[in-house]
Amino acid sequence: MFDSPPIQFVMPLPLRSVHGAVVQSADRSTVISALRPRPGYALRVVIVLATVVLTTVMLVPTQTALAQGSKASSPVGLWHTISDVDGKPRGIVEIREEKGVFVGIARGTLRSDEPPNPTCDKCSGARKGKPLEGMDILTGLRANGDEWTGGEVLDPDTGKVYKAKIKLIDGGRRLVLRGFIGFSLIGRSQTWVRAE
Fold first, then answer.
1. 175 in Cβ contact with 75 (< 8 Å)
2. Does residue 167 or residue 7 have the better pLDDT?
3. If you write DSSP's letter for every residue of 6-47 in order, what string do you get?
4. In whole angstroms, what is the distance from residue 160 CA to residue 128 CA?
5. What is the DSSP letter of 4?
6. 166: phi then psi, degrees, rounded to nearest 5
7. What pLDDT digit, counting tens, does each position of 24-59 carry?
8. Inter-residue contact 82 to 90 (CB < 8 Å)
9. What pLDDT digit, counting tens, does each position of 74-102 carry?
10. What is the DSSP letter of 89?
11. What are the phi and psi torsion angles at 31 (to 5°)?
12. Mean pLDDT of 167-183
């Protein structure tokens, strides 16, 4: 009935993006040139990879320093007590934090001349005659700036209890314990060394 030619639909090739270049032609040379790396591409890849590697390598010491920094800012851990009479290592005390309050627990002796399983014979009250190992000898300390104050310390040699405060020195490797009556000016100090 109709003598007109059939209608032809021409569909454009889909747009593609290759390395940021829009390619619409099916021409093989255009596609191949678009797929070729641009000048400086290899250098950019090397720079990105080097940045990733350097960032990873730099984060490991930072995380280690953060872990050590937490030791330097907290008395929690094992400590070797040093006698203020003869300057020799005496015992092991573990300091723990319980709900913001720091407690020191006797964990053992470092002296071979002391009897095994010593007891606090000069202590009074509930501590009298009890084994020193496992006994709370440092109690009630709370953080107060760069010190821990408001606590008490038991002197196992005399059985007496004194007011106490502690402060970390040498980047947290040593601790100064000050035991006193009334004011901290009237008392004596001991330096403990971190055992860990």
1. yes
2. 167
3. PP---PPPPPEEETTEEE----HHHHHHHHSPPTTHHHHHHH
4. 11
5. S
6. -130, 155
7. 555 555 555 555 656 666 666 666 665 655 555 455
8. yes
9. 999 999 999 878 888 999 999 999 999 99
10. E
11. -65, -45
12. 94
Two tokens, residue 147? 């010190």
Structure tokens at 136: 């709370």
pLDDT of 22 above 80: no
161: Cα within 13 Å, side-chain hemisphere: 14
What confidence tier does 183 reach under pLDDT thresholds 50, 70, 90? confident
Q: Which pLDDT does position 34 carry in this prediction?
A: 54
Amino acid type, 141:
L
What is the pLDDT, as a whole number, of residue 87? 87
At 79, which helix (H) or strand (E)?
A: strand 77-82
- Distance CA(28)–CA(50), nearest Å, equals 35
Q: Are strands 147-155 and 160-169 parallel, antiparallel or unpaired?
A: antiparallel
What are the strands, taking DSSP E only, across the chain? 16-18, 21-23, 77-82, 89-98, 101-109, 136-144, 147-155, 160-169, 174-180, 187-194
Q: How far is it, in rounded angstroms, from Cα 135 to Cα 127? A: 8
Side chain identity, residue 10? V
